[in-house]
Design a protein that fits this description.
With 307 residues, the protein is mainly alpha-helical. The chain is built from 14 helices and three strands. GO terms for molecular function: DNA binding.
């Protein structure tokens, strides 16, 4: 189903010629920026296109049954349950704020049933303790820039875009005896993280004699890295470290969180490391709950073996 026409129907802002549905879409999307704005705009575009195909106004007169049918059609189109839930974030938010603003008398999406997604564990392929150690060691042998990137991802659990955006000026402060890194994370949320001695050592090696500017550079051109460079650098380190599976920047973030949990870090402290708003998100990373070495069947077998 094409969303080209409907995804642009809400923009640009022309109130005199816009329908209530389009005005509500502009009002909702104005809350967001960057990638989130683009994603929600595309998802609302799909909803607008579906409504146009079915001769419905995207806002006025919509009932819960219509939303339920849309959810079913998303599944019938081949989307996974998790993707359907993601697609509905924008649609549900759209109706919620339209209701709050008094544009519609009731929210038709609030009780619409979404597919149940079971996420007992994160599906990302992370690294265990020995693999993480090898990854960090090998990264430093490639270049100081690869080493700094590996430590920011694998120890401080930065996201790819966050690591690419680190500047030398961001880690010059000392707070309560700790050298700290200031960054702006997901959702434009500011954060301050301590830098341990090993991390600071590789960052300083990467900095060299520079005093300002982006920290991690492309080793050959000397230009600042971007998100795509982060992916390429991580994959090169993984190949050199002979890790026999696909490793992404998120794998390193996953490794930082899960290895912290395996080391005995309390869930609350691991949540702070990960900068998750909800501790349940951090729990998804906890490999220990599915660790075969710790499975209860071993303890039960040992218990009944002496009978």
């Amino acid at each position: 189903m094409s969303t080209t026409t409907s995804s642009t129907a809400a923009l640009p802002f022309q109130p005199s010629s816009m329908s209530p549905a389009q005005l509500a879409a502009v009002s909702f999307l104005a809350r967001y920026s960057g990638a989130t704005h683009a994603l929600y705009r595309a998802h609302l575009g799909r909803w607008f296109a579906w409504c146009e195909t079915n001769a419905l106004d995207p806002l006025v007169g919509i009932q819960r049954a219509h939303v339920e049918l849309y959810i079913r059609d998303l599944g019938d189109a081949g989307l996974m349950d998790s993707s359907v839930n993601t697609m509905m974030h924008a649609v549900r938010g759209y109706f919620r704020f339209a209701h709050i603003d008094g544009t519609i008398p009731a929210d038709p999406a609030v009780y619409a049933r979404l597919p149940k997604v079971h996420r007992d564990e994160s599906r990302t392929q992370g690294l265990d303790r020995l693999e993480l150690i090898r990854f960090l060691q090998v990264a430093q042998t490639i270049s100081v820039h690869h080493g700094a990137l590996a430590y920011l991802l694998g120890i401080n659990a930065l996201r790819a875009s966050e690591a690419a955006a680190v500047r030398i000026e961001d880690y010059t402060d000392v707070l309560r005896g700790h050298r700290v890194l200031h960054l702006v994370g997901k959702g434009n949320k500011p954060a301050t993280m301590p830098l341990t001695v090993p991390v600071l050592r590789v960052l300083e090696a990467c900095r060299g004699e520079r005093t300002t500017g982006p920290l991690i550079l492309r080793p050959l051109s000397g230009r600042p890295i971007d998100r795509r460079d982060v992916y390429r650098m991580v994959q090169r380190i993984a190949r050199s470290a002979r890790i026999p599976r696909h490793i992404s920047p998120h794998s390193l973030r996953h490794a930082a969180i899960t290895n912290a949990l395996d080391a005995g870090v309390p869930l609350r402290d691991a949540q702070i490391l990960a900068r998750h708003a909800d501790p349940r998100t951090t729990e998804h990373y906890d490999r220990a709950r599915g660790n075969l070495d710790r499975h209860g069947v071993h303890f039960l077998t040992a218990y009944v073996a002496g009978v």
